What does this fold into?
Amino acid sequence: MQIRVLGPVTVIGTDGRVVAVGSKRRRELLGRLVAAGGRVVSLEALIDDLWEDPPAGAVGAVRTFVSELRAALGSDVIETVGRGYVLRAADVDVWRFEKSPSSVSWGEPYADLDPSPWVLQERARLLELRARALLDQGRGASLVCELSSFAAAHPWREKAQVLLAHALYQDGRQVEALDVLREARGRLVDRFGLDAVPDLDRAEDDILRHAVARGGSYARLRSASVVAGEAALTGGLALAQAQRFAAVAEAERLGDPLLTARVLTAYDVPSNWTVPDDAARAGALVEAARRTLRLLPADAPVALRARLLAVIALEHRGTRDLWAAEAACEAERLARELGDPAVLVVALNARFMQSFQQPGRSAERARIAAELIEVSARHDLPAYETLGHLVGMQAWSALGDFTAAARHAAAVEQLAEIHETPLVHVFTAGFRLMRAPDEAGYRALDLSCMPGVEAGFLPLALLSLGLPPDLTLDWGPYRPWAEALVMADRDVPTPRADHYYEVLWWITARIAEQRGDEVLAAAAREALEPASGEIIGGTTAMISFGRL
It folds into this structure.
């Protein structure tokens, strides 16, 4: 005798004929025992699963259904165990399916039963099992439609979202796969307040890693860099950067400078912060780009050369190395000659990054922001339009025009909602805190997904509130200034040319005042003079030490 539930609940006798099981309630009881997988189901559980609101005679009804099923199927098929029942059957299609999903024909499980909670749960479990088996065979593309519907019907079910993402990836739709995972993570975090969603995180990691691991051809490596860039824009910054680095390293090993240049420049992610998230990787990317630039053939596309120069200027940030600023200027010159807006916005981003080589250039950055916004809006380049508003928010905050800065903040938040770029909200939350400083707000600001921004931010923000320097906090690269504030024997380094340049010189001036060090005080005055009239810390648009 065969019991089938992959489709309508059906019993086939030893003679090959369908056995009349009876009413839907009997079929549901039989299906529920099948779903138990050979385990005992208590009488109470059967009652709860068969009725949403059990009638007074539910116990007697279940016992009657069992007796009728035994009469139809044989007395030894359902065994009484204590106050429960267990199915004893040798041939059940779903049990064979669970052992070997590819060996059994698929139909909607329990197709003739009403969608009670246990039925829905079993259908979901079995669909996931089947999908996993097909994905393991590399047949995910055939599942995209089915899993899209399934994931939409189960928005809180992590496995459903993971399976859809893997199916999309196998269908060559890597960016959509990553979007599914990010959207699912956002829903779960918002609804349940989770700090992490491990299944989704692992799936994202798998997809990004496999996009590098699928061979070393041009298409694969460039695709890996493109996918990493898309991941970075939607929040997966650290892992995306690691994947980009791996793709570039593999491209260099292949010895083709054109390939390497295209992989390096395919990661098209705007940047508005002068401290790298990973200084070692950033340095390695700069060296790879400089080597590649020297090896490019003379007839290489001008746009590619301009983008490569922009990569050098973007990644070599926070310094006063003239060659990096020259790379940004050359990238801009080539882009304007080409008349290519997509190349121009990248070059303008590089110009912005290198504008921190000298203090007091916030007005210049405001002009860069205006052009970024105008060009990007005209040519539908939303990532760079977003960058333009972030740069504008920073520039006008430094200049003390908070009305203009607030307009940029409102515009960039609207873009972030439309294009699903969650990191934007971190910067706008910081802007609101700068305008209405609050210790609890600063402590609650989550910068964990942006290591370069997070490093040392909280103690500097608390210092801007007038609180004494707390050396128990993580000051990151700014610890020497904190220690010098409280310990007179500590040396004071020269600040880097980054977003905190004026802040660190302001702290240096305080140290000089405490120590009565006229030489150090004169150095601070000279360094800060070009930024006279600006808001100290305003270049971050997140903290303020007052107007200089």
User: Anything to note?
Assistant: The chain has four domains: 2-118, 138-213, 219-337, 439-540. Residues 34 and 121 are 13 Å apart (CA to CA).
